Inverse folding.
């Protein structure tokens, strides 16, 4: 939170102070409550927590019952809960499945919900969780809320010398935003159903409720169409979801309270459609499935009726397949080149007074909107669909900037935010965490703020395969989940990271590979030899950020190898985070323990280079990062020298200072599309030693 | 091979010797060839290898083409090969997919096959692989053979200072047996489609060609029936495969040259069927899905026509769904209790002159055989279906002993072996490896031997879940795959283990979790704290063998936790194998290096116990093995003492000897259903120190 400077120079100030105190009371009490309960590794952090005395002991006799209008979904969820508890604790629980035969009053965990929740935007997801020494109660209006309560309960399982227990507690919880999602791009690289399912489990575990399924792209059309089968037959390389699979995924998601929003990206990003149906493009074919990355030219021809007939039929089929009220039409990154070059389109625009490509796209969108409206759907699309000619009942999905979201809210449009949640850009969790759909200093009025429905993390898949996707989504998406669920003032980054470490581990119970595949990839990179030295290095690197991987002399395509160090490296180095913390504590507080930790790890890094060279002999694939390993060694040696100088209170000579500057600069350079994440902290120590 | 003692006492012996030499020549030359090429980590080991001079270098320009009557399957397989090479080497290969547009002559790898293989018993699976410095040729009669050649090629990828290469070589290869399979029990614990698919990839990688899908059991009926929907609706807890999923799996298997044999186990092992259709059982219902393990009573009533009408309709449906010529009817472990107790059945037997339950089952089987014959299928079933009343065109699946297989072959029945391939019994790879379907001293004639089609590893799933199944199947099943593919005289156990270590690693590229889930389970067992100490211990334990886990005071049921140490522990401890080798080398050759290795590891084990106690504080689930950890410490201390005494050439006093005997005995006791695998080797050292 910001520091507030108040001047006491005038009497009016007293009134101001009073007002400020009144405003701050709820904030402070909530902050207090947050820090008091920070020891609870819950994520997303609940709205209200009251910690009580006592512990509920988990024993083999532990039982669950459902009360109220139990529907099939909550019974299944409760049965899965039994398995999750048993797997973690090794307790031989007695119940096989929770059924309505289970005696409510004698059971330990009693889940009550008034009605089955509808998996639609705005459904009641609130719950309360009440644990005392003898009983656990989850109460909710809908089973969707109850399932959120179960996830909180499972995060609460703790351990002491006697065994496993749940702390006595009272939690009242509800989401801040109703739209909390993850987009998975299954087009640039196909993601099989099991990848989707385990990520749905992950989403449910952090109380997210939207899976945005990005189903069509230049590089692939990923869903079976029975009406236009050339879409998937010619546009997918055989990698597509059948209707049965789509229904299975939707059902799996709904059982976890998650809506599925399909995206069919039009009029651009559509090359794969035109492989089978070239007549719908704005330039003559033939077309091939795109294998490169970037913004491509092929775009629907918005001036021919065939386009609308086709999309009307196809969207009719897809609107039936996907039950959600919202239907995403993409609409992004139409570069207009095919439109500019097409005489017929230019003529059409003149004849119809359409002044530019944006207006032409709005015309196209309006036609599509008619189709969707006919099928009972609401339209959602990226920023670019925002146009004065569009009606107010569409949802703007903001990817280019939060300003766009503000503007659209002010114009009366509903919106969701993805700008700042682009997890494919390999930014740290803290960045996403502090990215609020409604900034603290938002210029929006209260009613305008209500137009902002939430946000979505986006897992674009140019550089992601089924092997690496989990580590790109998790754990960072859990931080976004918290931003979208928890109170606006829950913004303590250190606390977030502490809780994230535990949530990251708990997410493994859904079969997610975000932790497991790290060692697997290191094993492959080292041809199944000892990978200790490689791990020491990869532990402190991160893939280059934003879109840099495309601009470092490597031309990535759809079938390039995504099995190199840049793919194995995790988006956020924990070792670097810890090293940085220790460096600060050493520099600011001369902390001895951290100083020793730093020295040990520096010595390890210095010795690591020669060890890694041995590994490189059997592993040509890793040779590209040899300079990086050498730079780590050189910088670590400098830093070790600097610490000695600091401890001896000696200033280095100019030669040393110049040399250190040169080495540090070189060490900032990426190799193999990864960069050393520990240089900043080492630079701080070196600079400190050079300064008075 | 056995030692052959020959007496030179009579002239006739010379003739005998000559004959023996002629017989042995091919064996010795093959043995020689095996040891010469043992450096090639191929598995299953090819029939004939000729190593040449030179290396084919893998570069980004590497390309593949298909020659001959290329069918879709071989193009897909070749495209997957591109990905596998790229992933391992990091090479940015140029081809996206192999198509018939690829120019054959200029490509590097040319795959030629004369015709599309049929995925049926007995299809030609032979291939030749020819690598020189400039070209690679795979030639095969069918694409199934060519795909085996591709797997061999992928196992051959090697590395040197210049990069990745393939050694110049000429391989001619073909399978010894035509039926090389793996049974997966998806009933005791359900296995989702992705588990099946990744294991199909594993099977293909080791040239196996049968997936035996054990689909019905007391504990679950796992396939959708459109004719009798209560089978899956009431008999599966919702865990079953839809027809679409079954077709998808069959298609996936066929693309890898693997036949899918469904098993519907009748007349016993059928409790789950009777939940929906109790009228077909031999005792009145109602029935519930069985949650316990063991041999259960519920059995089809073989004396009522309803049974045959039902099975005729159901098997008609399933015979259409599963295209393979063979249909497995189970038939095992019918305990006859319901038949004995049913007056109607007893009356029927008397009236029809059926003398015992075995004969009644043969009557039942003959009726089922009529049904299967009508649908164009051949019957396969377990040992128990063998009966003099059965015709000779059935296949006997031997699980109770090799004698049964010999007997059935002598009686003219075809047979396959699973006895000795029960991988759920947690025996070492070497045991399965040396278990030959046709023993070297087999009493069978050559024509009788031809009746033995091969064998199947069996992954029964009482104690196995989707989390642990891969580690129970792999790598041991690769040793069975070699037994069934390679020449009978390829039996060098040390060589097998050396190659198995590499194959185990390569199998990871199919997404198999046999390596990855070990750390995941240790992480969960230690509540995400440092698991080094636990790993030190679990590295040297193995789950208790055979059916012992059921008889150590723990009552396992379907939904018990299978996440304990006994589940994390691998079936075969590599550390124990290495320790044992080192102990022998120390004792037999006084090897200094191994002595030091042993001392280091003993010191580690001694110190490990106190470290593990700290972990136990946060991990109640692992406390059950505290005595085991203590026993490892005590035994390691004894062994360290013994080594010192041996080195000083001092004999211990009687007290020490008695104490050591007592400690060793205690250390052999299992805790938590695991046992220390290193006691035997330590005992050898201790005994040595006490002897002469």
């Amino acid at each position: 939170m910001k520091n507030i400077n108040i001047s006491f120079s005038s009497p009016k100030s007293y009134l101001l102070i009073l007002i400020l105190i009144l405003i701050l009371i709820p904030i402070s009490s909530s902050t207090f409550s947050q820090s008091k309960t920070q020891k609870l590794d819950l994520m997303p952090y609940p709205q209200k927590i009251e910690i009580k005395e006592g512990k509920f002991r988990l024993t083999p006799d532990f039982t669950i019952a459902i009360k109220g209008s139990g529907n099939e979904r909550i019974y299944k969820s409760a049965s899965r809960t039994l398995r999750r508890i048993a797997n973690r604790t090794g307790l031989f629980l007695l119940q096989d499945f929770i059924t309505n035969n289970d005696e409510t009053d004698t059971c330990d965990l009693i889940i009550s919900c008034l009605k089955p929740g509808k998996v639609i935007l705005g459904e009641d997801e609130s719950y309360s969780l009440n644990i005392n020494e003898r009983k656990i109660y989850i109460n909710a209006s809908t089973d969707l809320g109850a399932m959120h309560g179960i996830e909180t309960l499972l995060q609460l399982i703790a351990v002491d010398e006697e065994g496993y227990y749940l702390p006595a507690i009272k939690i009242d919880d509800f989401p801040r935003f109703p739209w909390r999602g993850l987009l998975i791009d299954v087009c640039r690289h196909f993601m099989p159903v099991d990848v989707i399912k385990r990520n749905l489990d992950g989403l449910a575990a952090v109380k997210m409720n939207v899976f945005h399924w990005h189903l069509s792209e230049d590089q692939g059309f990923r869903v079976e169409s029975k009406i236009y089968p050339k879409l998937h037959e010619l546009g997918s390389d055989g990698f597509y979801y059948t209707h049965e699979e789509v229904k299975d995924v939707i059902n799996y998601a709904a059982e976890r309270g998650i809506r599925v929003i399909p995206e069919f990206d039009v009029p651009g990003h559509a090359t794969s459609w035109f492989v089978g149906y070239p007549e719908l493009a704005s330039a003559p074919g033939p077309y091939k499935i795109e294998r490169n990355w970037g913004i491509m030219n092929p775009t629907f021809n918005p001036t021919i009726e065939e386009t609308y007939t086709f999309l009307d039929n196809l969207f009719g089929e897809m609107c039936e397949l996907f039950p959600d009220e919202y239907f995403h039409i993409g609409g992004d990154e139409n570069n207009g080149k095919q439109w500019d070059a097409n005489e017929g389109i230019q003529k059409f625009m003149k004849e119809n007074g359409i002044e530019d490509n944006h207006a032409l796209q709005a015309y196209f969108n309006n036609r599509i909107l008619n189709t969707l409206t006919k099928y009972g759907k609401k339209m959602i699309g990226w920023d670019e669909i925002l146009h004065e000619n569009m009606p107010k009942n569409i949802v703007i999905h903001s990817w280019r900037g939060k300003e766009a979201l503000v503007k659209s809210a002010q114009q009366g449009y509903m919106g969701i935010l993805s700008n700042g949640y682009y997890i494919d850009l390999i930014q740290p969790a803290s960045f996403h965490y502090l990215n609020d759909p409604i900034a603290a200093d938002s210029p929006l009025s209260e009613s305008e703020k209500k137009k902002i429905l939430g946000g979505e993390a986006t897992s674009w898949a140019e550089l992601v395969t089924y092997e690496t996707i989990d580590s790109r989504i998790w754990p960072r998406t859990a931080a976004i989940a918290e931003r979208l669920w928890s109170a606006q003032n829950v913004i303590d980054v250190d606390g977030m990271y502490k809780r994230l470490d535990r949530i990251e581990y708990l997410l493994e119970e859904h079969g997610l590979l975000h932790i497991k595949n790290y060692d697997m990839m290191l094993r492959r990179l080292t041809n199944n030899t000892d990978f200790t030295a490689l791990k020491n290095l990869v532990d402190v690197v991160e893939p280059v950020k934003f879109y840099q991987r495309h601009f470092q002399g490597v031309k990535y395509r759809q079938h390039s190898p995504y099995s190199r160090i840049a793919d194995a490296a995790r988006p956020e180095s924990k070792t670097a985070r810890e090293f940085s913390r220790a460096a600060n504590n050493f520099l600011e507080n001369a902390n001895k323990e951290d100083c020793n930790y730093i020295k040990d790890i520096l010595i390890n890094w210095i010795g690591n280079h020669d060890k890694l060279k041995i590994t490189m002999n059997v592993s040509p694939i890793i040779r590209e990062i040899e300079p990086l390993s050498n730079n780590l060694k050189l910088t670590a040696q400098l830093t070790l020298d600097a610490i000695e100088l600091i401890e001896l209170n000696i200033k280095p000579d100019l030669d040393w200072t110049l040399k250190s500057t040169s080495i540090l600069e070189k060490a900032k350079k990426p190799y193999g599309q990864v960069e050393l994440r520990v240089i900043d902290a080492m630079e701080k120590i070196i600079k400190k030693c050079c300064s008075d």
Notes: Residues 1-37 of chain A have pLDDT under 50 and may be disordered. Chain A is about 45% helix and 15% strand.
